[in-house]
Design a protein that fits this description.
By secondary structure, the chain is mainly α. The protein is built from nine helices and three strands, in the order ααβααβααβααα.
């Protein structure tokens, strides 16, 4: 693949890799009220099937017996997560579980910091991760969302421009059809489809 924006995509990925951990305010709230898009039963099933992320998650984090008990610890984060999840068509509050990390100290420090898993060292993972209100990553997440959207728009504009000048269904100067290019672009923005990337 060779698009005008290939270099931009590579630079964008490099920026994601250079994670700004210094933005963390070390309030500990995200360690005390963790939720996933999968139910507890789904996580257990994934772990049994060999999914490493699910296995690490279940091995490290402890499940609150109820949402009410999670609310007692970090109420604003629980409400924010439930508000986000309730927007999904298949939302079922009975499938929602909250977790906490038993390795956080009273000073909100990680007692296994050097060995913490990627799910911790890379949180928030993207611009749409549901972090506690007032999190130090809020500005970074907003900027990241705008960059994702900008990249998707530019790729789509590039496709539209090529469609306008092509009279044989091929990408000028490339050994590729417009339909092949369309599929490549759709693959590039597919990871964010649940956030509306097809409409950006």
């Amino acid at each position: 693949m060779s698009l005008n924006y290939e270099q931009e995509i590579n630079e964008f990925q490099k920026e994601l890799d250079e994670f700004p951990q210094y933005l963390c305010r070390m309030c500990g709230r995200c360690c005390k009220s963790i939720a996933t898009s999968d139910s507890h039963e789904e996580l257990e099933r994934l772990a049994e099937l060999g999914n490493q992320e699910a296995k690490v998650f279940i091995d490290i984090f402890k499940r609150f017996p109820s949402i009410e008990e999670a609310r007692e610890v970090v109420p604003e984060q629980v409400e924010q997560v439930l508000s986000e999840l309730s927007l999904k068509e298949d939302f079922d509050i009975n499938k929602v579980s909250f977790y906490y990390c038993p390795h956080i100290t009273e000073e909100n420090l990680c007692s296994m910091h050097g060995k913490r898993p990627t799910v911790c060292s890379r949180a928030p993972h993207h611009g749409w991760s549901c972090m506690p209100p007032g999190c130090g990553f809020e500005g970074w997440q907003f900027e990241l969302r705008e960059k994702y959207k900008g990249m998707a728009r530019r790729l789509k504009e590039h496709l539209t421009a090529i469609e306008a000048v092509s009279d044989d269904g091929k990408v000028p100067g490339k050994e590729m059809t417009i339909e092949e290019l369309r599929k490549i672009i759709e693959e590039k923005i597919k990871p964010w489809s649940k956030y509306g990337s097809m409409f950006w």
